[in-house]
């Protein structure tokens, strides 16, 4: 019989063994840091290979093309109120400068479209549709970032609306104000005099060359902090922003070199050449932004680097043990009146990805055994006294998870030998756990005493 399974790559197996079959606690600090960095980049490349990041980048390209003119029209109207609307076209030209004449053509067409949009004469319905188009783009961006951060829910509708409008209204003003200050400082008479004096001249020239990098890194860091529906640490966002900022500037050089060296695309695509290049550039920009978000996530949650796979499936044995561990930790803090465990804290304590913790806590919430605390940051607390939650009930909850109305054990074929064996197994487990509760587990008063939780 032929083996239809996909053959394993010995090189890939060696890499995985070298990176994951090692006890980091027993390795030197420098080697541990190196392994973590390699694991991080392996995880990012793995996510790229899975296709989700590239697929979401392509989706954002399509949404951007639909929303770009409405977004610039709203931003243009806001900037006009502050008297800095004349900087929109120079900013676009600067962003698209690496595309040469095609960048000038694209910027001119975009500004032409924006000029033709008269926000004041759109009426209530037209203005509502304009804002909806802009907000839908921002929501699509948040959804893509939430995927990277393993968050399945968007912000509440009220927070989304106010947050998105703040970005649209305040963001352009801050960006163009920063650009204006940078230009003013570089052309200031005092700055020009200082540049004539060494070593101030060399220092200022170096700083002026670093300013574009610093601005793009700062912008990306800001995006990584505010866009995902998760609490992002500044250090992690800064590392993601640094990597993506370097990639952004480097890709601009490469793209410009490609345009200079390649003259055949205009002959092949004719009038569509500018549009196709613009779409490819948008795709590259979104992909870089998502890669930086992925790096920020893995830096903040190194427990997701503990395995070479992204999508993990729990065996029944692991699911039951993880359920007992979650119940033990939550019950112990509740019993000792300590702060409730959050999903992030549970993930780090148990050294498993948050998706696995979520699968357990969501199941127990669905079975009304757990609920979220009222205080922020939100944690998990029992819905009833610990002595009223039996261990057998916990295990039944996870064993029956994902069973729907159309596929349950009682809908399977009834073979008496199998039915009798299943009943014997269930009875043996129930008898072994009879009377044992989460309070026994948390307080250590059961048959097997446990050590105190750190």
Automatic annotation (TrEMBL):
Its main location: membrane. It is found in: Cell membrane. It comes from the Bacteria. Keywords: Cell membrane, Membrane, Transmembrane, Transmembrane helix. The chain crosses the membrane at residues 57-79, 119-141, 161-186, 206-227, 239-260, 266-299. GO terms for cellular component: plasma membrane. Coiled coil: none annotated. Pfam families: Virul_fac_BrkB (PF03631). This is Uncharacterized protein. It comes from Solemya pervernicosa gill symbiont.
